[in-house]
């Protein structure tokens, strides 16, 4: 085989690896409803060899059956902090899901849905 043939073949390899989402375990996953003092904080990392874009916006988060004031802070091109305060919902376990497509690589692969660790909301001390 000629070197040119091998070079052309190498250029045609496709990137089929989707970007990954890694979430650092939250320090405190028990939260009192409707308070600002101690927000629920997630550290989120997006990774791919050829990560091209991260579009981390509130519209790409499924909050399930709660509402909250949301703050998204970009730490670096692949690290973000999601903070929730003034969370309103029923007492009990809740889960937030990051939707597909927040991160995209140069091969146009997108991350899949990613469920964040459950947190527990309470409205009264007796809950």
How would you characterize this protein structure?
By secondary structure, the protein is mainly beta. The protein has one helix spanning 3-11, and strands spanning 20-24, 30-32, 40-47, 51-54, 61-62, 67-74, 79-88, 92-94, 97-98, 103-105, 114-115, 119-122. A four-stranded antiparallel β-sheet has the order 1-3-7-6, with no helix packed on it. Strands 2-12-8 form a three-stranded mixed β-sheet, with no helix packed on it. A three-stranded antiparallel β-sheet has the order 5-9-11, with no helix packed on it. The protein is elongated. The termini are far apart. The model has no long low-confidence stretch (mean pLDDT 89).
Major β-sheet annotation: 4 strands, antiparallel
Outline type: elongated
SSE string, helices as H and strands as E: HEEEEEEEEEEEE
Beta-strand portion reads 35-45%
Please tally the helical runs, counting DSSP H or I stretches of 4 or more residues.
1
The helicity comes to under 10%
Number of strand elements: 12
Amino-to-carboxy terminus distance: 72 Å
Q: What's the arrangement of strands in the largest beta sheet?
A: 1-3-7-6
Low-confidence stretches: none
| Multimer state | single chain
Query: Roughly what is the average pLDDT, rounded to an integer?
Result: 89
Radius of gyration: 19 Å
- Structural class by sheet pairing and helices: mainly beta
């Amino acid at each position: 085989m000629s070197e040119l043939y091998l070079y052309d073949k190498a250029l045609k390899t496709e990137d089929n690896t989707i970007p990954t989402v890694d979430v650092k375990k939250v320090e405190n996953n028990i939260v009192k409803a409707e308070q600002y003092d101690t927000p629920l904080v997630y550290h989120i990392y997006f990774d791919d060899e050829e990560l091209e874009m991260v579009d981390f916006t509130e519209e790409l988060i499924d909050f399930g059956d709660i509402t909250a004031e949301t703050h998204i802070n970009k730490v670096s091109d692949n690290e973000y902090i999601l903070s929730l305060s003034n969370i309103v919902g029923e007492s009990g376990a809740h889960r937030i899901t990051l939707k597909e497509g927040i991160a995209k690589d140069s091969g146009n692969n997108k991350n899949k849905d990613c469920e964040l660790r459950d947190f527990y909301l309470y409205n009264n001390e007796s809950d």
